[in-house]
Amino acid sequence: DGLPSGWLSQLERLLLEHPSAIVGEIGLCKMARWTRQYAQGKAAAFEIQREVFQQQLRLASRLRRPVSVHCVNQHGVFVAVLKELLSENNDDEKDQRQLLPPTIAMHSFSGASHHAKELLTLENQLRSTNSDP
Q: What is the 3 state secondary structure string of 113-131?
């Protein structure tokens, strides 16, 4: 798959060694050169990107670390990944916000206004369904 074996455990080890580190820059990018040049094709490259991104978000969530996200021409996929992570909640008592990193900073956002509205709606839903007592 082109990724070094043990990359996720190595990332976790580094994050544990540096408790104030954020997870980033991570993200999804249709314009990345390697996605256009990946030997198995663009679709395979985008699937790898998505899986790596999901795993990085899960790790950031578990360690309660903020993330810095780079997202170019993949905003629908970005929102879909967030919703998939939220749907993994098997514990009705668990605060859904714990399934996502505590902060998601979009440092490169090229989406349209409807993408921003979709993200804000998702954030408002999380705030209202999981408000602190």
A: HHHHHHHHHHHHHHHHHCC
Q: Decide: 70 and 27 in contact? Cβ < 8 Å.
A: yes
d(CA 11, CA 96): 24
Q: In what order do the strands lie in the sheet with 104-109?
A: 23-29, 67-72, 104-109
Residue 48 CB-density burial (10 A; 0-12 exposed, 13-18 middle, 19+ buried): middle
Look-up: residue for tokens 């578990």? Answer: 62
Q: Is the pTM of this model over 0.90?
A: no
pLDDT digits (tens, 9 = 90+) for 29-73: 888 888 888 999 999 999 999 999 999 999 999 999 999 999 988
Distance CA(42)–CA(95), nearest Å, equals 36
pLDDT per position as a tens digit, 74-97: 999 999 999 999 888 666 556 777
